[in-house]
Each structure stands twice: as C-alpha cells, then as structure tokens.
Amino acid sequence: MYITSVMYEFTFCYCYPVQKLIDQANQIGECIYLSNWEGTQYFNKEVVLIIALSQKGIHIVAGGMTDINSATGLKTVKAMVSYTAFLKTVTATG
GO annotations under biological process (predicted)? Predict the structure, then answer.
C-alpha cells in the first residue's frame, strides 16, 4: 500500500505537472514566431532573443541530481514495480 501511494505521489504530483510545464515552455518560441512579429518595429531584438532562447529547452532538476519529467517518472515506477516483484519472489521462496 505504501509503495502505491509513493508511486502515485511521485508520478501525478511531481512528474506530470512538471512535464506539462516543460511542454508549455517549449511552445513559447513557436507561439511567438507565429504571432506576426515581423510587422512590428519595436520589439524585434527581444523577440528574436526569446525565440533563440526557447530553442534551448528547459530542464527541471531535483536536488541537482536528476531531471524531473515523464520519462523519469516512468523509469521510477518501473523500478518500483520490479523491486516489489523481486521482494515478493524472495519472500515467497524463503
């Protein structure tokens, strides 16, 4: 029961919202590019800078050790399920 709640908390409270934030941040450059910014004369340098910076992408790091995103969440859940299955096998045979 505890492992299930930890998997739920990590996946749906951390990884899913962070992945949504990363997806929205990656769409900023595309949205600005499609906003007809070429017709303006005031913000051309700033818009080009924002578009260039948005191509880099963002990474949200937990504790300076690992990225938090949906791929990390799925790897963690996979490792938890494998470990739980291993423990059930060891305790059933022992």
Answer: signal transduction
DSSP summary character for residue 66? E
Upper half-sphere CA count for residue 31 (Cβ side, 13 Å)? 7
C-alpha to C-alpha distance for 23 and 77, rounded to whole angstroms:
21
Give the pLDDT score at 20: 93
pTM: 0.71
Provide the residue ranges of all domains of the chain, joining segments of one domain with +: 2-93
72: number of Cβ within 10 Å:
19
Cα distances (angstroms) measured from residue 52 to each of 7, 65, 77? 37, 27, 35
d(CA 11, CA 30): 28
For position 77, what pLDDT does the model report? Answer: 84
Query: In this predicted structure, what is the pLDDT of residue 80?
Result: 83
